[in-house]
UniProtKB/TrEMBL annotation:
It comes from the Bacteria. The keyword Manganese does not apply. This is AbrB/MazE/SpoVT family DNA-binding domain-containing protein. It comes from Clostridium facile. The keyword DNA-binding applies. One of its GO terms (molecular function) is DNA binding. Keywords: DNA-binding. Residues 5-47 form the SpoVT-AbrB domain. Gene3D superfamilies: 2.10.260.10.
Amino acid sequence: MRIYRILGKKGRITIPFRFQIQMGLSENDILSFELRDHNTIILRKERLCDCHKNRSK
């Protein structure tokens, strides 16, 4: 699927809602961008750590 967006004056762009749903993105998620070549950017949802999940004492 291809969706087009226009880059704004301040270099901002909105991730299409359909992609947000498919990727499970929500407010305050951490995203990374990787430049693969001069025309391809890889977007990933990141997790900084799992250190607080299922923590046993």
